Every structure is written in C-alpha cells, then in structure tokens.
Amino acid sequence: MAEKSSEHEHPQNTFGWAARDTSGVLSPFDFSRRENNVDDVTIKIQYCGVCHSDLHSVKNEWGITVYPIVPGHEIAGVVTKVGNNVKKFKVGDRVGVGVMVGSCEKCENCKQDLENYCRKMILTYNAIDHDGTRTFGGYSDLVVVKEHYVLHIPDNLPLDASAPLLCAGITVYSPMKYYGMTEPGKHLGVVGLGGLGHVAVKLGKAFGLKVTVISTSPSKEKEAIDKLGADSFLISTNMDQMMKASYTLDYIIDTVSAVHSLAPLISLLKLNGKLVTVGLPNKPLELPIFPLILGRKMVGGSDIGGIKETQEMLEFCAKHNITAEIELIKMDYINTAMERLSKSDVHYRFVIDIANSFSSAS
Ligand code: NAP
Ligand code: ZN
C-alpha cells in the first residue's frame, strides 16, 4: 500500500512552515495531525520560541534531519479539546509543550521522571511517533499531544515570554539542580548570552548566585548587567580579562552552539569547579585533561529535563517572575530571524506570534 502523505495521513488539517532541504529556508506547508485520542490534548498554538536547535535541525547540521521538517519545541497555547481519560487539563487551559511528546513510560529512567533520558523518547519534531507517523513541531497552528507531556503555564506568566522556558528554561534549570549549582553566594559563569544563556543568568540570580557572563559580544554587556542582573561580564576573546578572572568561578554553564575552546573556561574554575555543557555544536570539542586533574574539576552534560521537573521549573519562574526576553515576530520573518540567530544577533529569543501570523493564511 502506498504511504499516505503527511498532508492526508491524519484527519485534522494543519498549517505550518517547513524546511525542505539543507538550505534551511522555511515556507508554508500543509500537513495533518491525528484525531484527539482518549489520553490526548489538542492545543491551539499561540506562540512558539525559536531555539538554536531549530536552526541546527533545518540545516541538517547534526546529520539526522528528515525533510520536510516543521521545527518548534517551545510551544505555548490554549487547550481546545481533551480526551475522555485526560485528568490534568480542561478546554481553555493555558499550556505548553517542550522538546518531547512521548517516551516508553516503562524504563528505569521514565520511572524516575527522567523521560528526557528514555532511549525511546519521542522528540516534538523530526521523530517517529508511536503510530509510525512523523512528528512535526510548533511552527504550526495546532498540535495533539498526550497529556503527560503537556505542561501548565502558571497564571502570572505571559504565554509569549514563557514559551522559551519550555526548552531554554528547563535546559539550564535541570543541570543547575542536578549538579548542585544553586548554593547561594557561589559564583556561576554563563557562557554564551543567547536564548539559554540569558535564562541561566536570571535563574542564577534567583538562586542567589553571583553571575558572570562570558561572551563574544561586547555589545551585550550593558544589557546583561542592567537588564538581566548579571554581576559582571567577560569578553572571552580578551585574554587579559580572562587571565585576571582565572580561579574565580565555582560553576559554569556553557550554552555555546558552535565549536569553541574549553581550556580558557576550565581555567576560570576554582578547585572542584564544575563545567556543564548544554550547547550542541556539530563537531566534538577538545577536552584538556591537565587543568581538570590539577584542579579536581569536572565537565558534565545535560539534556533538557523531565516533565515533572519542567513543571517545577515553571512554578519556580512564576514565583520569581522569570520569563524570557523576547523579540516577537510574525511567521513570515522566520528566515531573517534564523539568519540573525546564526550571527548571535537576538535579544534574546525570537518568539513567533503564531495566532496572528496564521489567522488569514489558514
Ligand atoms: P543562541 O540563542 O544562538 O545562543 C548561543 C550563544 O552562543 C550566542 O548567542 C553567542 O553568545 C554564543 N556563540 C555563538 N557562536 C559562538 C562561537 N563560535 N564561539 C563562542 N560563542 C558563540 O542558542 P540557544 O538557543 O541558546 O542554544 C544554544 C545551544 O544549546 C545550541 O547548540 C542548541 O542546539 C543547544 N541546546 C541544547 C539543549 C540541551 O538539552 N542540551 C536544549 C536546547 C538547546 P555571545 O554573543 O554572548 O557570545
Ligand atoms: Zn530547544
């Protein structure tokens, strides 16, 4: 039997924007979503953040992209349908969906609320769902998701500026908690002041840390300090500044999306310092062993966070009034936005105003 096209395989007509090849250029795309099953929630998407992972993916920088691809895993919207078994949500609720929409729910990791480390985790886009069809992300007008993978967005958080918390927020919150990087008074370095980095600065301050930004962009210094609350700012290419700051940091979160040198960052750490990398460059980084050994330092990694922890992060952000700094764009600006993202020219997250981009088009 011939395989059905993504436009007709499901009953719910959906409109989005997709990239068709490694140029990464996005354009309008008609596809379909499954009917809302008993455990599902249908969400009218209002906003979707633009993560650098979307950019890596549309250009196939990790070598795993299947085209056409509809990116988007920082989804915020309103529930329009719930299945009969759904307990946590009702029509009209303000909700979010992050990087995953499924997992096996049986393995050791799933049982510990670490679905993000399930070997069968299903990504929100560019993955195969349980029914064998491909997943498409949030650059689209609606999505159907099993309720377990849907998050409540607290009432005091605006939907547009909290959409980026669903990926950027949890990706920095989770390692801060897991690696014990939350002790008030300790000194955190945040490398790369983009989507992930700027939320890490805000979370660091909320945990009571001293925060230093380590950046390649001198133009971001004033905002980092005045607006985001960082205590100091280092230009990573200024060797003099970097030397003077050596042995001053307890922890570092490295959010850089491109290949870069770890040695100068490790030198910033004190004895027993921890460097956690969350950026996903498409090539391996060189790991200098001597400075690690001589300072009993460690390097670790972390991948988003589980659903329970993502809800906890949203409540923490609600309590501390943390949202992303966003530049709200219409869908037809996305190709320019991607170009600017590739040049680190964003303050600090593009968010697509889906509801107002598609109302006339779909
Ligand atoms: P972003 O907004 O583009 O921020 C990345 C920042 O890195 C840039 O703003 C820039 O900051 C710095 N940078 C860029 N190129 C650089 C270079 N060549 N050398 C040094 N610094 C450079 O990206 P994002 O959305 O925050 O995502 C960051 C990375 O995390 C991406 O690789 C993404 O795929 C990955 N990610 C991982 C996870 C996970 O679960 N582990 C989740 C989401 C995203 P300055 O201008 O301050 O230098
Ligand atoms: Zn992301």
Automatic annotation (TrEMBL):
User: Which keywords does this chain's UniProt record carry?
Assistant: Metal-binding, Oxidoreductase, Zinc
Cited Pfam families:
ADH_N, ADH_zinc_N
Keyword Transmembrane helix tagged: no
Gene3D superfamilies per record: Medium-chain alcohol dehydrogenases, catalytic domain, NAD(P)-binding Rossmann-like Domain
SMART domains per UniProt: PKS_ER
One GO-annotated biological process of the protein: lignin biosynthetic process
Q: Which InterPro entries match?
A: ADH-like_C, ADH-like_N, ADH_Zn_CS, CAD-like, ER, GroES-like_sf, NAD(P)-bd_dom_sf
A Gene Ontology molecular function term for this protein is: oxidoreductase activity, acting on the CH-OH group of donors, NAD or NADP as acceptor
Matching entries from SUPFAM superfamilies are given as: GroES-like, NAD(P)-binding Rossmann-fold domains
Domain (Enoyl reductase (ER)) ranges: 24-352
Q: Cofactor(s) for this protein?
A: Zn(2+)
The signal peptide annotation in the UniProt record is none
Does the keyword Cell wall biogenesis/degradation belong to this entry?
no
Q: Which family does it belong to?
A: Belongs to the zinc-containing alcohol dehydrogenase family.
Q: Which PANTHER family match?
A: ALDEHYDE REDUCTASE
Please identify the protein, giving its name as recorded. Enoyl reductase (ER) domain-containing protein
